[in-house]
Write a structure and sequence with these properties.
mainly alpha, 68 residues, single chain, Helix Hairpins, elongated
């Protein structure tokens, strides 16, 4: 898991790559939860929050567009 400080230091392409990897891991754990018994349920929550953090930082770093 990356800390918020580490996330903010990365550029957008690195953040998008990290987001993609985190989503894959989240999907893998969710599938395993449905089919098997997951030992660590808190890992799913941590991944979900990390996905939200990454999305937030990407939106902050993305240049704002004019609606005019």
């Amino acid at each position: 898991m990356l800390t918020l400080k580490e996330i903010r230091q990365k550029d957008i392409t690195e953040l998008k790559t990290e987001l993609e990897n985190t989503k894959k891991e989240y999907f893998r754990l969710r599938c395993r939860q449905v089919t098997d018994v997951v030992q660590n349920h808190t890992e799913i929550r941590k991944l979900r929050k990390n996905i939200a953090r990454l999305n937030t930082i990407i939106k902050e770093k993305h240049p704002q567009r004019d609606n005019g």
